[in-house]
Automatic annotation (TrEMBL):
Similarity field: Belongs to the SYG1 (TC 2.A.94) family.
Protein name, UniProt field: Phosphate transporter PHO1
Region (Disordered) residue spans: 165-204
PANTHER family the record matches: PHOSPHATE TRANSPORTER PHO1
CDD domains (UniProt xref): SPX_PHO1_like
Source species taxonomy: Eukaryota, Viridiplantae, Streptophyta, Embryophyta, Tracheophyta
Length: 784
């Protein structure tokens, strides 16, 4: 049977862990009470000479008399052992909070320990009540705002529909008014112009009245100023994105993340297209935003409901343990207080959940409750034993094929014979691309496994949909399948070469493998993890167009992965040139290597990941006005400089460039190490209770953190190899480069865990368990 402490740890909301009742602490206090109740060891005095000898001799008689009197004078009701008093506190201004304080009515033999236990129990009860009340108030406020947003949206949709009908019905009458105006000469203006002005003014008033009915107030609404044309100016702003993405909870993702629509332009410039800002497409985008906000609200209410139930069970369990240890029936009286407390007695959460269900069903699911529940309560993916089976199967196949490849490569002299240089220059880089990609996928699977094992809520951090988020078994399956396919292609390639097939035909195998990979990646059918594939493509698009897209956690996290895959990108350059120059036919590997464009592209490719990441920092600084992002940008600029200098030194090995490599690389490495340990991991805090770490740690063994710091430090200085050059021959230099590239991928996978762990702890510190979705309609004053 699983202990409740383990069950509670597995079911509680990770971001709200500190707000839950501290079950383990209360359990330890009960153990202290149990220890204090144990009889003291016998005295060394003989019984006859003991000072309390008479007490011990007549103790059985005294116990019997006490039992008889209890039975004789006891009533049917159990006497109250403790009294829980409730007082109100208004320390936080007008907000009145109820504080519970327990007093013992009957004395216990271990009075001090019992008093301390109930004092701790009162603290936990007050903590749970206060947190529940704050979150309940927050969610109720969100619900009121969303209902107002929905009313505004309904009014705008109705106005848009009515306007379309009026435009269709009034087109003929408008033409007749224009023709009569041309035949008449009025000094005050033609009837057509007056009619148009009156129509625009009435349309404006209609919109204003519709919004004001829903509580949207305008600045100086009573005395609105007017433009030169006599049309009123307004101060409400409507933010509606140009497009809203659908998969993986990406949120509003568009080149202009939110288009600020001033109603002044909407009303005052209808001829210039201002009236076209509120279109059906933008209304649909606003509807998607409100729908997503309702889903997040419902999810938060569900978490708060779970919070209440788990805490109620914890209080019940701990009080029963106290009764068992103390031999008293104290749980009944205290549980009555717990059941009357705010977190269990309040029904606002349940009523608001029912209201959200009915609203969502009516407005977003065409009154189809089953369809609405698919959005509000998405089914969690269940682990499949078939996935585990295939992971094991492909792992075994990979190990077997890799062993065969090593034997065939040794027999054919691929890594020893100088005659096989063309293989290392042309075919091997293609396979290296897939090998590094497979290794990165495997490391990502390890990350997912560790995050799940340590209860780090990575789906919330990356804003993944719980129904389509990749699990660690799926990541391992993709990685092992990919590795098996790559090694299998390498084995077939060597076998066909040894069998005497034409080199022109055999060397197309890497190209076929690359073509299959691209086809699977962009396959539109719902197979091969389509949500994950499309999410990956969308993130790559956001990275390449960094300045034009709002940067989310998953975007800059993936961009950081690319900075560790520069060798892979360089191999992709070689692969592209290999097939475009048809080197697989001519076997002239120097065709690409000696080309000027090819050599210049090496700088561009090495700079690109750092440049994209720097652009993301600029965009985040622009959105958040946080100068830390500009400092972070400097880290990537220094890395770009160091990468460019190392490439130049590899071509021109002079003392001047050697000094430049040392200076630029040392500066970039120190910059990166500081940011890794202090900013990304949150470590090296000299005032922490855990020496040179941080106060909150997910891993219980602190030695893991010290070891990880050392590993990251060693792998960060792998660039020293470019100076020392531990190389024996041309073939081994390629193998060494591949080894260093693999170590960098492993370092990045190792870095990923602590980066997400630190982000998770930041969410825990602020109790962030529900996303805040931007809403389409808001006042200009709210942005100040």
């Amino acid at each position: 049977m699983v202990k409740f402490s383990k069950e509670l740890e597995a079911q509680l909301i990770p971001e709200w862990k500190e707000a839950f009742v501290n079950y383990c602490l209360l359990k330890k206090q009960i153990k202290k009470i149990k220890i204090s109740r144990k009889p003291k060891p016998a005295s060394l005095y003989p019984i006859a000479h003991h000072p309390y000898c008479g007490l011990y001799l007549f103790q059985p008689v005294r116990n019997l008399a006490r039992t008889f009197s209890d039975k004789l004078f006891s009533s049917s009701e159990t006497p109250e052992i403790l009294e829980v008093r409730r007082r109100k506190s208004s320390e936080n201004g007008d907000d009145v909070e109820e504080i519970y304080q327990t007093e013992l009515v009957q004395l216990f033999s271990e009075e001090d320990e019992v008093k301390f236990f109930f004092a701790r129990l009162d603290e936990e009860l007050n903590k749970v009540n206060q947190f529940h009340k704050s979150k309940e108030t927050e969610f109720v406020g969100r619900g009121d705002i969303l209902k107002k947003q929905l009313d505004i949206l309904a009014e705008l949709k109705q106005i848009l529909s009515d306007r379309k009908k009026r435009n269709l019905s009034g087109s003929n009458s408008h033409r007749s008014l224009d023709s009569s105006a041309r035949n008449s000469d009025f000094s005050a203006g033609s009837p057509g112009e007056l009619s148009e002005t009156q129509s625009e003014t009435s349309r404006t008033d209609e919109i204003i009245e519709a919004l004001e009915r829903n509580g949207v107030n305008f600045i100086n609404s009573a005395t609105r100023t007017k433009t030169k044309g006599g049309k009123p100016k307004m101060s409400l702003r409507v933010d509606i994105p140009d497009a809203v993405a659908g998969a993986d909870g990406g949120g509003a993702r568009s080149i202009a993340t939110a288009t600020s629509v001033l109603w002044e332009e909407l009303v005052n410039n209808p001829r210039s297209g201002g009236g076209d800002f509120i279109t059906r497409k933008k209304i649909q985008c606003a509807e998607k935003m409100i729908r997503k906000a309702f889903v997040e609200l419902y999810r938060g209410l569900g978490l708060l409901k779970t919070y209440s139930s788990l805490n109620m069970i914890a209080f019940t369990k701990i009080l029963k343990k106290f009764d068992k240890v103390s031999g008293q029936q104290a749980s009944s009286s205290y549980l009555k207080v717990v059941k009357r407390s705010q977190f269990t007695s309040s029904d606002k959460v349940v009523r608001l959940m029912d209201e959200v269900e009915s609203i969502f069903t009516k407005h977003f699911a065409n009154s189809d409750r089953k369809k609405a529940m698919k959005f509000l309560r998405p089914h969690q993916q269940k682990d499949s034993h078939m996935v585990t089976f295939f992971v094991g199967l492909f792992t075994g196949c990979f190990v077997s094929l890799f062993s065969i490849y090593i034997i065939l490569a040794h027999l054919s002299g691929i890594f020893t014979s100088g005659a096989q240089v063309s293989y290392m220059e042309t075919v091997y880089p293609v396979f290296s691309v897939f090998a590094l990609l497979s290794l990165h996928m495997f490391m990502y699977g390890c990350n997912l496994f560790m995050w799940k094992s340590t209860r780090i809520n990575y789906t919330f951090i990356f804003e993944f949909s719980p129904t389509t988020a990749l699990r660690y078994r799926d990541a391992f399956l993709m990685g092992t399948t990919f590795m098996t396919a790559v090694v299998g292609a390498m084995v077939i390639h060597l076998i066909l070469r040894a069998a005497g097939f034409s080199a022109n035909q055999v060397d197309t195998i890497p190209g076929v493998l690359l073509l299959i990979f691209i086809c699977v990646l962009i396959c539109p059918f719902d197979a091969f993890y389509r949500p994950t594939r499309f999410c990956f493509i969308r993130i790559l698009r956001n990275i390449v167009c960094s300045p034009f897209y709002k940067v989310l956690m998953v975007d800059f996290f993936m961009a950081d992965q690319l900075t560790s895959q520069i060798p892979l990108l360089r191999h992709l350059e070689s692969t592209a040139c290999y097939f475009m120059a048809q080197s697989f036919r001519t076997h002239e590997y120097n065709t690409c290597k000696n080309g000027r464009i090819y050599r210049e592209l090496a700088y561009l490719i090495s700079f690109s990941p750092y440049f994209w990441r720097a652009m993301q920092c600029i965009r985040r600084w622009w959105d958040e006005s946080n100068t830390d992002h500009l400092v972070n940008m400097g880290k990537y600029v220094s890395a770009m400089v160091a990468a460019g200098v190392r490439i130049t030194y590899a071509r021109e090995s002079t003392n001047l460039w050697l000094i430049a490599v040392l200076v630029s690389s040392v500066v970039a490495t120190l910059y990166q190490l500081y940011w890794d340990f202090v900013k990304d991991w949150g470590l090296l805090n000299p005032k922490s209770k855990n020496p040179w770490l941080r106060d909150d740690l997910v891993l219980k063994n602190k030695n893991f953190y010290y070891f990880s710091i050392a590993v990251n430090l060693v792998l960060r200085v792998a660039w020293i190899e470019t100076i020392v050059r531990f190389r024996v021959n041309h073939v081994q230099s390629h193998l060494l480069d591949f080894l260093l590239a693999s170590l960098e991928v492993i370092r990045r996978g190792h870095w990923n865990f602590y980066r997400v762990e630190n982000e998770h702890l930041n969410n825990v510190g602020h109790f962030r368990a529900v996303k805040t979705v931007p809403l389409p309609f808001r006042d200009m004053d709210s942005d100040d």
